[in-house]
Amino acid sequence: MRDLPLNALRVFALACTHGGVRAAARELGIAHSSVSRHLAELEAWLGVPLAREKGAGRRGWAPTPQGEALGKAVLAGLGDIEAAAMAVREARSPFAVTISSAPSFAARWLLPRLPALERAHPRIELAVLVNQHVEDLHADGIDLAIRMGTGPWPGLRCEALMDDALYPVMSPGLWKEVGRPARPQVLSSLRLLHDRDPHAGWERWRQRFGPASLNLQRGPRFASSDLLLRAAAQGQGVALVRHRLAADDVAAGLLVRPFGERELHIGNAYWIVHPDRAPRHAVATVIAWLKDRAGRG
After folding, report:
1. Are 6-90 and 96-163+269-296 in the same CATH fold?
2. Under DSSP, is residue 129 helix (H, G, I), strand (E, B) or coil?
């Protein structure tokens, strides 16, 4: 069992099912050369050919008799494994809820509020997964996801969760060091920090509040909003941030808003996304709790 090439066997079974290397590659979302390599490794391990090209005038790929027998056995085994796995998944606690979120949102908004969920609903067993993309929720065992963007996402039930706003922040120490600026014109002389989030770019701020001469090419870029906020709190520059992610640091005095109430509104900035079916009671409970907390800020 230890030496059994399970990945190669799975690839071969898909090639048999879908009629060839390229079709199996499309199903798996990998290069067809990777499928060919798996099949070659499997043939080398077995010591017999498993497939052949069809004759002249007959395009395609077909398993040998030995390959066909092996493919049927592997498919049957994988089917049994899938059925057993689904039975185990369905047998999990009715109070278990798996939620997926982008890393920065999980760290900055969701995590600080989880103790309140536990106090309000002590029987809920929450699991949090972090991912930047909307996955195949059913296949990955995810009950609901929270996503930033314009939405909605096809094939899923999408419910607007909350709005957001963008505004500049900096550390109190840097703010004092540069003379306690209060007007956006001073941004031209400060180091800008940039978020990779396409909805939180400085261009939107420049168009609304200026200055028109603000050079947006300078300053470091950060792959996550959490890193951006950490850099700003360390006094590395001025960051344009999402209110929902920065509010706790602003309230704690770790960051200041140098330009007061100037901000850019983002409507329907966050969405609850879940499979397009009636959610289980525990999932519906978490959705209702999320909406309630979102309404409180």
Report:
1. no
2. strand
The two counts, helices (H) then strands (E), for the chain are 11, 10
**Kind and range of the H or E element at 237?**
none
CATH number assigned to the domain covering 6-90: 1.10.10.10
The DSSP 8-state label assigned to residue 280 in this structure reads: P
**Residue 50 and residue 70 in contact, taking contact as beta carbons nearer than 8 Å:** yes
Contact 127, 92 (CB under 8 A): no
| CATH code reported for the domain at 96-163+269-296 | 3.40.190.10
- The pLDDT value recorded for residue 89 is 66
Q: List the domain boundaries for the chain.
A: 6-90, 96-163+269-296, 164-267
Instruction: Check residue 25 and give its pLDDT.
Output: 84
Residue 56: the pLDDT is: 45
List Cβ neighbours of 40 (8 Å cut-off, separation of 6 or more): none
Q: From the CB of residue 72, how many other CB atoms can be counted at a distance below 10 Å? A: 13
- Summarize pLDDT for 274-296 with one digit per residue, the tens: 988 888 999 999 999 999 999 88
Residues 283, 295: Cα–Cα separation, whole Å = 19
CATH topology classification for 164-267: D-Maltodextrin-Binding Protein; domain 2 (3.40.190)
Q: Is 4 helix (H, G, I), strand (E, B) or coil?
A: coil
Task: State the pLDDT at residue 57.
Answer: 41
Residue segments in the chain with a per-residue pLDDT below the cut of 50: 56-58
What is the amino acid identity at position 173?
Answer: G
Q: Please state, in angstroms and as integers, the Cα–Cα distance from residue 223 to each residue in 31, 36, 135, 195, 196, following that order.
A: 27, 35, 20, 7, 5
Query: Would you state the structure tokens that stand for residue 140, as one six-digit string?
Result: 């990955």
| Spatial separation of the C-alpha atoms in residues 96 and 191, rounded to whole Å | 46
